[in-house]
Amino acid sequence: MKKAVILGAGTAGTMMANHLAKKLPEMGWELTVVDQEKTHYYQPGFLFVPFGIYEPKDVVKPITDFLPSIANVVNEKIDRVLPDENKVLLQNGEALNYDILVIATGSQIAPDEVEGMLCDQWHKEIFDFYTYEGTCALGEKLKDWKGGKLVVHVTEMPIKCPVAPLEFAFLADAFFVEKGMRDKVDITFVTPLSGAFTKPVASDKLGYLLKEKNITIVPDFAIERVDSENRKIHDYGGKEVEYDLLVTVPTNMGDSMVERSGFGDDLNFIPTDKCTLQSKVADNIFVIGDATNLPASKAGSVAHFEAEILYDNILRFIDGKPLGETFDGHSNCFIETGHGKALLIDFNYTHEPVEGSFPLGTLGPLKLLKESRVNHLGKLAFRWVYWNILLKGRPIPFVPATMSEAGKQLEQINQQTIID
Question: pTM of the entire structure?
């Protein structure tokens, strides 16, 4: 019996397991999923926990609730992959052979990459919200924080969900307004980018919102170190930003097993064909989600679109057919802006976010790059969609894996180019 092994039971790995379970068993293949965790985290929900919008219990469920029953589930840490031997070594000394390997080990924060960030003030005055522990600790801190200089900081790109730090700043503004203490809080958004976002049109729109909400932006900040004693962050160019409460997005890196396997880049992301999702390590190794080095957002929607295309390509690979070069970097994301409103963006490798209507072309009903209550409700509804549709490998109605140009005001890009 041939063996397909998936490394990782997070968002991408779970979706791939459910896709492959539709066909592989009836084709005589055995399916195995490996993950050291027994808990599945709804990571988009981490954004809401510090503000009391979600409770910690709302973002956790057992991984076995979502993996197909036909799959063998191995709860062990992964040591490394041996591509030349078609073998995965586990840290308990066991080995798993495979004919096809799907790597979905995601990314994780590495606060130790910045001098002084991981110190005795970690989760006391310096927080992340990209981990369950971090977001829960930050929620406790904000309950009775008296105010001061709040700095929302991004260390370097790429990161999971590139808009999440901006969303945090917007939600913080609304949170303190609702608590009647916004005048006691100075919010600063510090980024290594030259603007609020990576894409010009969206960056202009989001930058305007920062200004409108009286949130100071410090761009082009390449952090060198955190001085927790004096509550300052310093960059390599000599700039410094003071804080009373630092909410940071540390360096994001691929799983350490990638480094031990010897085939990742400097951040442990795996070289991957951006259109087929076949790794550049070996023909029978495929990569999905945050583990890739693709020039696409590291977000759940991207993994969802990738999963649909990778499923088809794995079946093609098994049948000896050419792989479809069809993944276009499609990303779709609601951006919380506070006070019950949100933006929606939809883009890919070649098309940046612009205004328009979604998903039914000019019929909408959702508006792109415009704040609305409907978009906010869509963001909250996504949790149900995630648990009940995405993880189970089901398509989202009217939202194809590749981006549609229908309803988008693509002339905005040309206008922005002329302005720049």
Answer: 0.96
